[in-house]
Here is the input.
Amino acid sequence: MIRHLVLFKLNEGVERDDPRAVAGAEAFFALGDQIEELHSWECGWNITDRPIAYDFAINSAVEDGDALKRYLEHPAHQAAAAQWREFATWVIADYDF
Here is the structure.
């Protein structure tokens, strides 16, 4: 299994209630039901106010590298990620577990 973690940081001046951020979060919330490669899917807004914290997180799992590739190329994932490119930056970690 591969764990796929993504942490998003909203760009300067962008707040969680920005319509773009709201739509981007909704797009990611829906992915768990749209992509069969996902064995697990969790995402949500950060609940702490620590200055080093990121704003939104995704924690998911797929079977293997091929499944990760299919997930990343899935049109619903591509559409959701494209929205976030407009207002955030992110870091990613993928690891076997």
